């Protein structure tokens, strides 16, 4: 698993944030409820993980940050049209050097 001790990680973040004046309350939910709340944007911060399964940059960039993923795995709800354009261009080319350059620009 990507994070075998989410509670410890949350406590570490809580402690670090406290040092800079941010008070955080740790709340846990059953997985289905957690995902429902995350997709509804009912979180100030959340822990979520992703394990890449195919080695392609789009498995991370498009899936987690693309505008097309706003109702999927883009829990941050971040959408940037110039970024999305680069990601779409990279997906549409089979030229590996061009894809690499487009993904670098997107980052």
UniProtKB/TrEMBL annotation:
Signal sequence annotation: none
InterPro entries listed in its UniProt record: SBP_5, SBP_5_dom
Gene3D superfamilies, alphabetized: Dipeptide-binding Protein, Domain 3
Keyword Signal among record annotations: yes
Signal keyword on record: yes
Keywords: Signal
A cellular-component GO term for this protein: outer membrane-bounded periplasmic space
Name the record gives this protein: Dipeptide ABC transporter periplasmic dipeptide-binding protein
Native source species: Pseudomonas amygdali pv. photiniae
